[in-house]
Structures are given as C-alpha cells and as structure tokens.
Amino acid sequence: MTSVATTAGADAVGRRGAALVVLCFVQFMLVLDDNVVSVALPSMRDDLGFGAAGLAWVVNAYFLAFGGLLLLFGRMADLLGRRRVFLTGVALFGAASLVCGLAQEPWQLVAGRFVQGAGSAMASPAALALIALLFPGSAERARAFGIWGGIAALGGTMGLVISGALTGLASWRWVFLINLPVALAAVVLLPRLVPESRAGRAARLDVPGAVLGTGALVALVYGLLRAGESSWGDATAAGPLLLAVVLAVAFVAVEARASEPLVPLSFLSFRFRAVANGATLLFSAAMYAMAFLLMVHLQTVLGYRPLAAGLAYLPYGAGILAGMWLSSRAVARLGMRPALVMSFLITAAGLLLLSGVAPDDGYASGVLPGMLVTSIGCGLSLPALTVAALTGTTEENAGLGSAVLSSVQQIGGAVGIAVLVALATRRRDGLTAEGSQYAATEGFSFALVVAAVLVALGAAVIAALLGRARPPEGTPDV
Fold first, then answer.
1. Contact assessment for residue 24 and residue 147, using Cβ atoms and an 8 Å cutoff
2. What does the pLDDT average to over 143-154?
3. Of 13, 69, 136, 271, which is most buried by a Cβ count within 10 Å?
4. CA dist 444 to 228, 290, 347, 372, Å?
C-alpha cells in the first residue's frame, strides 16, 4: 500500500510539474506577442499599405482587448471553469494568430490582433489561477510563481530578439505563425494534466457589473493609448478617460448593491492584496515605460540596429531569471515586506544608473550595469508581488484575483508609457536648441528618474502599509 501511495504521489507531482511547464510556455507565447510586433511594424506597413495612424492600432488593438476584458474573463473562469476558459482562450489566440499571419489587408491584421488580445485575456488569468490552485503551499507557490514570472519575463525580452530575427531572415508573418505549435500543444496536453476547477457554489455572472466594469477598463485603456499618441488635453483622450471615471463610479455603486457582484468590494478592500496591487501599479508604470524608452534610446540615440537592440536586452532576461531564483529565498529568509522593499530599492537604483547613459557611452560601461541591476531587482520583485496579490484567494475567486492583478499590471503599464513618454518628449522638445542627441538624452534621463521615484514610492507604500495588513495563515511572514 505504501509503495502504491508513493507512486500515486509521484505521479501527481509529475503531472503538476508538466502542467506548470505547459502553462508557462503558453504565458511565454502571450507575453511574446505583447511586443513581438514592434520591430516588424515597418515591414507590415510596407506589405499591407498601412497609414501612420492605422499602423499604431496593430499594437493598440491587442492592448485594448487584453486590458479591457481581463476582469470579465477572470470572473468567468471562476464560474464556468478555469481549464475550460483557458483552453478556449488559447484556441482563440491560435486562430487569431493564423488570421494575422495570413492577413492581406490592414483591417484583417488589426481585427486579428484584437481577437488575439481577447484570447490572451481569457487564457492569462485562468492560467495564473490554475497555478495558484495546483500549488497551494506558500513555499511551493512562491517557487511556481518564480518559474512562471521568469518564463514570462523571458518572453518579453525574447520578443524583441525573435521579432528582429524572423523579420530580417524570413517574413513578419512568422511572428504570428510561430504561435500555432504552442497553442496546439497546450490544447492537446493540458486536459490530460489539469482537472477542471470552478467556484464551489453555483453563481450567476453579474451582467450589469460585467458591462460597466468592462466598459470602464476599455475606456480607460483607450484613453491612455490616445493620450500617449496625442496629448492629455486632446478630446479623443480626455473623453474616454472621463467616461472611464463615470463608468467606474457606476460600477462601484452597482457592485455595492448586487447580491452576487462581479467583484465583491470586500475582495478589493482586503488590505494585504490592496497594498500589493497598489505597489504593482507603481512598479508596472515604471518598468513598462523603462522598456519602451530604453528600446527607443538604444536605436535613435546610441545608433543600434533593431536586431542589435533586441540582442542588447538578453542580459536583462538573464538578470530577471537570476532575481527570480533568489526571490523565494529572500522571502523565506527576510519575510515578504523586507524582501519586497529591498527588491524595489534595487530596481530604483538600477533605473537611476540607466538614467545616466550618455550618447558616447559604450554598451558594457554605459547600458549594461544599469540594465543588470534593474533586471535583478525586477526578478526579485515579481514573484513576491504575485504571491502577495493572490494572498487569500480560494477556489471561489482565484480567477478573479489573477484578473485583478493582470488588469493592474496592464493599466499601470499603459499609464506609465503615456505619462513618462510624454514627460520625456516635453523635456526633449524644450531642449532641442541644445542639440538633438543631448535633448533626447535629457528627456530619457528625466523620465527614468521619475520611474525610479515611482518604484521608491512603491517601496515606501510596502514598508508603511504591508506590515499592518495581516495575511491569512500560511503566507510568508511580513
């Protein structure tokens, strides 16, 4: 009997490990598509005949669907089944990737990107919820999230390299077609590795809350995207942002009265998760903006070609992986709060180092030190933030918790890019008379100093508030 039980236990552990591998590779694919099109945009424009405004929507359509639909699909995963929603999202993402790869008209590519974003909004929070439930213990959950975050970060870094290589050596269409084997493998393998899970009690989807919440997120993301392209005072940006505020207020009022709300206010007000999500918002704003600004700086000021700029990011991926490996150990030894404060301060120091990169600096002496320090701090932060943001989630709301975290990351990234890029542009334009390279460098430096301040503010929030928010039993000490 003992040997049979041991074998069964080993099989269960093996299936969980295999499931984690599949879920991580899907996340790699999803994160890859966040930025894989950036290097290929000129080739898409030339092949399909995009106008300047239309080309931006190859990127924006994805983020609009992804950021706007996360909350809705995260809750649907809890109610309808997380494995079902995940597999549906992966299949939808794969089909949309095929449409993008075969597109002959601009509208076909933009429509495919929108559907890709919707598929990603279904798959990503459901996958994170499945991992949270597959690894319930705090230590093993931290390790699983470390692996998940490392693979995701690697996807973000490799997207630039893979996009440059495929576009230069083959065709931009392969940027999308390479998704098909991963999607097919996930759809075939995951049902054999992960049982279905859903909320234990029967509940109906809160339709008014779903409409208002989704509308608020879509309006917010759209307004932020427009603000990044034009200005905050432009009607096409200010109108959607104002609408987002109105819909958000209506959403809170409806949820307070609903018998089965889409997002229970008690879930959002749980202090430990609220502090973690607030810190994530600040962290995401800084890091998304840094990645965007550094890629532009490498190419326009330092003179890197697209593939060289992508390859320059490889040490960043290595640093994140090293930080991920250290993260669970830091939390176990120091506790959640000190480990997060330390990791945020390391990240802020790295951003300050990057802000000092001058036009005549070499890669090894100028870019690399700040990139490595920033990436290690980022790698230390991400798993601990994820564990903290999903603290106390159960069979009833794991998908919702994952969706809230993902929504916070996306909104933080959109805000960061819109605000910090605007600050960098304003600073650059005010110094253009001093020389274009000098002005661009000053704008880049100023924006990264602001990013460092945001991360330091996140560290202060964690230090002041996380320790007062009592996590449930089983969470690493704060």
1. yes
2. 74
3. 69
4. 16, 9, 17, 18
